[in-house]
Specification:
Layout (H helix, E strand, L loop, with lengths): L5 E8 L4 H13 L2 E7 L13 E3 L5 H4 L4 H15 L7 E4 L14 E5 L10 H5 L4 H21 L5 E4 L2 H11 L4 E2 L17 E5 L8 H14 L6 E6 L6 H13 L4 E5 L3 H10 L2 E4 L9 H7 L4 E4 L14 E4 L2 H13 L1 H18 L2 H23 L2
Parallel strand pairs: 1-2, 1-4, 2-3, 4-5, 5-6, 6-7, 8-9, 8-11, 9-10, 11-12, 12-13
Helix pairs in contact: 7-11, 10-12
Length: about 375
């Protein structure tokens, strides 16, 4: 039987996150070529160097020069996929938005959506409040044009996966499209537990929507009540220094930190695994996260996770079994205090968490279902074109 030929399209391969991990796993499994708008081999997963990656080139730079780097890169990615024409593929897999615009000149397309564009939809008001008057006008105009294209192309996509129930809800609400939830997997074999040292860990990209101030405030409440002054909070994340809003946010949360809160930037994979292996518990407080790989990494390390009761974490954590879901920084502090006084519960939750991950979040399960859908879509497309 002929092997299915797959192309993978994703906008930005310049960081190490859950989205890039999904792209990597699919490309490796299907020996697929990856098309992207931005690629930095040193900042993303090193395994991409072993794959065929093509960086798309745009002819529209002159009209993009007036825009900021962030806006320019978003427009650049959209235009490149919108006009891209691919040949000799059975299926094209679109990943992070706006790579789904590849559907303009290509078919069939299977979109694995990590979320509709949050700046255009659920985070629109949040972003607008951070901009000055002229920036707001430009942002509004760009979003209107984006929505016109998005609403014209998405209904034509042959099949849509959502990475979570949360993303599925956004797709239905904002784009009126049905989707199938397919949770990503995790390489849980890479994670282990060495100890339960006196620090809480919050690893994530340094961006405003990760809401580190929530966790910092919770830790300060916890530390005030604790008799043991050795406790620390360790924040680990990648900082995009080209984005002023991210740099300013980093400075803001840095000002909130005392001697017992440490921020580590751009650590190696080995150091991150070591931090997971030795922390007491993991904190996670983003704004309505699409899915979120952090709780899975925590549970894979036999550590309970205390997360906000929003979005993706609700699909991973079982409250009171492998972690806690909380509604405020005060409640997060209470759960931290509870775990401090119950180390036996910490270990049991960690073991239950690891078991939960192994049973429900394997890459074999993910890739099997993904392949099944791609084959069906390819066959339908072939029979349709031949009729």
């Amino acid at each position: 039987m002929r092997k299915m030929k797959l192309a993978v399209c994703h906008s930005f391969l310049d960081t190490r996150g859950g989205t890039q991990k999904v792209v990597l796993k699919i490309a490796q499994h299907f020996d697929a070529k990856v098309y992207c708008s931005i690629y930095d081999a040193e900042k993303t997963y090193p395994e991409f160097k072993e794959l065929e990656v093509e960086v798309l080139k745009t002819r529209f730079y002159p009209i993009l020069r007036p825009f900021s780097k962030r806006v320019m890169s978003a427009i650049k990615g959209g235009l490149e996929f919108y006009f891209l024409k691919l040949k000799d593929y059975d299926v094209i897999n679109a990943q992070g938005t706006p790579s789904e615009w590849v559907r303009n000149r290509n078919s069939p397309v299977v979109w694995y959506s990590h979320s509709p564009n949050r700046e255009a939809f659920d985070l629109y008001e949040f972003r607008m409040k951070q901009r000055k008057l002229l920036q707001k006008a430009l942002f509004w105009s760009l979003i209107q044009h984006y929505k016109l294209i998005e609403n014209s192309l998405v209904p034509r996509i042959e099949y849509v996966f959502a990475n979570s129930l949360n993303t599925q809800g956004r797709l239905k609400k904002y784009l009126r499209v049905n989707s199938e939830v397919l949770h990503p997997g995790i390489d849980y074999e890479r994670f282990h537990c060495e100890d339960y040292k006196k620090y809480f860990l919050y690893p994530s990209r340094i961006t405003p929507e990760k809401r580190f101030e929530f966790a910092i405030e919770a830790f300060k409440r916890f530390k005030f009540k604790s008799r043991d002054k050795e406790w620390k909070l360790v924040i680990v994340g990648a900082l995009d220094e080209a984005r002023l809003e991210h740099v300013n946010y980093y400075k803001r949360i840095s000002d909130m930190c005392g001697d017992d809160v440490e921020i580590k930037l751009n650590v190696s994979n080995d150091e991150l695994l070591n931090l997971y292996a030795n922390c007491y518990s993991v904190l996670y407080s983003p704004i309505d996260e699409d899915f979120g790989i952090i709780p899975l990494e925590a549970l894979s390390s036999y550590k309970p996770c205390i997360a906000v009761n929003e979005g993706g974490p609700k699909e991973v954590l079982i409250d009171g079994v492998n972690g806690f879901l909380v509604g405020s920084s005060q409640e997060m502090a209470w759960k931290m205090s509870y775990l401090e006084g119950h180390p036996d519960v910490v270990e049991k939750m960690g073991k239950d968490g690891r078991k939960h991950v192994e049973e429900n979040f394997s890459w074999d399960r993910f890739l099997s279902r993904f392949k099944e859908v791609c084959e069906k879509v390819s066959k339908r497309s072939s029979s349709g074109s031949g009729s």
